[in-house]
Write a structure and sequence with these properties.
The structure holds two protein chains of two kinds. In chain A, 29% of the residues lie in helices and 23% in strands. Chain A has ten helices and 14 strands. Chain B folds into three domains: 205 residues, Glutaconate Coenzyme A-transferase (3-Layer(aba) Sandwich); 40 residues, no CATH class; 43 residues, no CATH class. Chain B is built from ten helices and twelve strands. In chain B, helix 3 crosses helix 4. Classes of the chains: A alpha/beta, B alpha/beta. At the A-B interface, helix 3, strand 9, helix 4, helix 5 and helix 6 of A face helix 4, helix 5 and helix 6 of B.
Chain lengths: 258, 289
């Protein structure tokens, strides 16, 4: 096996986020999350239910963006919202901003009444985060993404959920934040973002510098595990033979990792 | 009906729901007809794509109700961004996607609201202070009376949707992967107008098509209009997919200078629907060269 790329480490970390989910609908938003979910389905959690990102549940695990596989169900948008409310779902969304309390923003930057940069809108983030397990994928970990306070709370972190009462908090479950540098969760003191592991070649200080708020860091931060030989084969030969993953997370040069 | 007869039913200040989803199966021929009209001060309710972009750019919209506005392959809609950043829409209501559906459902069921969790703890409730919570009259397993969002009904004066086939009475089928929320839009509205690729005999609707694809009943529909390629440049699977090249040209013009946008408008939007379709054909031929 050639050198393991950063994208491959991220894919395995994303797969691990879905490892213990059981038989639920895994909804990855974006390419690396899709890769990670399919890796999980082929390894640690074959029970995962996956879709073609359009309206079909797929019984098999096709390569990224490939069509034609055995269909095992129908999941048009109206049914997606049924599953969200039902709860048997784990979504991994993107995030333009994530704050110290694990709130996420994909709506707009600046003041809501006249944003400096309008983004997508809140989409399904408010509903996802108070109904089903939610994780985030951040391909470029930086202080612009990890901010003290998000401009517009789209995805709801645990502190906000608790403040809104049991109706919001009982199913609020922000599970993982996977970035190109590290794996985090929101189980730090006072429901804050906490560093769980740093990817091989990344230091804790680098993650701190790339984070725009005081990150909870334990004395001993482990290294994110590297993908196994089996996982690397699945990533490279089965799920992503075109190496699309490197477009989202650029391979890190050896000098940069020293 | 004709496209112009549908638009003649609309009035300034109306609340108009537009079916489809983002850049998928949008009643674009009807949207283009609104662009050509003198209509103004509209409230537009939409899972938004270029329908929203075009209408806000044309200054038709006083109030916009949406959960997102996106073109999928181009995530951010440039005309919508421009309008928001320039504060060109007087009032905006940005909802969670599920809240939007629940609001339509409440209207469809003639209820003032329906409860749900979505919105709690998020800035949707901060930016829409009129949206209230309601306390459950029932205790949960822990004896707690949960506070839930009372999603207000999204009542529509008119719904505009685009499907694949209909008979002249308004029974209509979708042949693509997803019904989206077109039935709810129609039931949330006082009047619904459906444009279709093809008007066929009633018997033809289920000849080669499972009856479950009959999404709309004529009792939900006030008028039918045949608009071939009427969802262009959004998807209308399986009749056609999104015209990505045209969408790219739209995005480039919308993101460019005022002159570039005016040139796009002059080329594609200055005439009637026939002129639009002819200009689109000419564009496709140029792209192939």
């Amino acid at each position: 096996m050639s050198t393991i790329s950063r994208a491959e480490v991220c894919a395995a970390a994303i797969a691990d986020a879905f490892r213990d989910d059981g038989e639920i609908f895994a909804s990855p938003m974006g390419m690396l999350p899709m890769l990670g979910v399919r890796l999980a389905k082929l390894t640690s959690n074959p029970d995962l239910v996956i879709s073609d990102s359009e309206s079909l549940f797929l019984a098999g695990v096709p390569p990224l963006f490939a069509k034609g596989d055995v269909v095992e169900g129908w999941i048009p948008f109206p049914k997606v919202f049924d599953v969200v409310a039902h709860g048997k779902r784990h979504v991994m969304m993107g995030a333009t901003q994530v704050d110290r309390h694990g709130n996420q923003n994909i709506s707009a930057i600046g003041d809501f009444s006249q944003p400096t940069r309008q983004l997508l809108g809140v989409r399904g983030a408010p509903g996802n985060t108070v109904n089903n397990r939610t994780s985030y994928w951040v391909p470029k970990h930086s202080p612009r993404v990890f901010v003290e306070q998000v401009d517009i709370v789209s995805g709801v972190g645990p502190r906000n959920a608790k403040a809104a009462g049991a109706g919001a908090s009982k199913y609020n479950d922000i599970h993982r934040v996977v970035t190109n540098l590290a794996v985090l969760d929101v189980k730090g003191a006072g429901d804050t973002v906490r560093l769980l592991s740093v990817h091989p070649g990344v230091t804790v200080d680098e993650v701190r510098e790339a984070t725009g708020f005081a990150l909870e860091v334990d004395a001993d931060v482990p290294e994110t595990r590297s993908p196994t030989t089996e996982e690397l084969t699945l990533i490279r030969e089965v799920i992503d033979p075109r190496t699309l993953r490197d477009r989202e997370v650029k391979p890190v040069s050896p000098e940069a990792t020293s | 009906m004709t496209i112009d007869e549908v638009v003649a039913q609309l009035r300034d200040g109306m609340t108009i729901g537009i079916g489809g989803w983002g850049p998928r199966r949008k009643p674009m021929a009807l949207v283009r007809a609104i662009l050509r009209s003198d209509l103004t001060d509209l409230t537009i309710v939409s899972y938004g794509g270029a329908d929203v972009g075009l209408l806000v750019r044309a200054g038709k919209v006083r109030k916009l109700v949406y959960a997102f506005v996106s073109l999928d392959t181009v995530p951010l809609e440039p005309n919508f961004q421009r309008a928001r950043q320039g504060k060109e829409v007087a009032e905006v209501v940005e909802l969670d996607e599920g809240m939007f559906q629940t609001g339509l459902r409440a209207a469809a069921q003639r209820l003032p609201f329906l409860p749900m969790r979505a919105g709690l703890g998020s800035d949707v409730l901060v930016n829409n202070p009129d949206i209230r919570t309601v306390t459950s009259p029932y205790a949960d397993a822990d004896g707690v009376h949960e506070d839930l969002v009372a999603v207000p009904a999204l009542h529509l004066d008119v719904a505009l949707v685009h499907l694949n086939r209909a008979d002249k009475h308004g029974n209509a089928t979708y042949l693509g992967p997803d019904p989206y929320f077109d039935d709810l839009f129609c039931m949330a509205a006082d009047r619904a107008y459906v444009s279709v690729e093809q008007v066929i005999d009633t018997a033809g609707l289920t000849v080669d098509t499972p009856v479950q694809r009959l999404l709309l009943s004529r009792m939900m529909v006030s008028g039918v209009v045949e608009t071939p390629n009427g969802a262009h440049f959004t998807t209308c699977t399986p009749d056609y997919e999104r015209d990505e090249k045209f969408q790219k040209a739209y995005v480039a013009a919308a993101s460019g200078s005022d002159e570039e946008w005016t040139a796009f408008e002059q080329r594609f939007l200055a005439g009637d629907e026939d002129a639009y379709q002819a200009a689109v054909q000419a564009f496709a031929q140029e792209e192939e060269k």
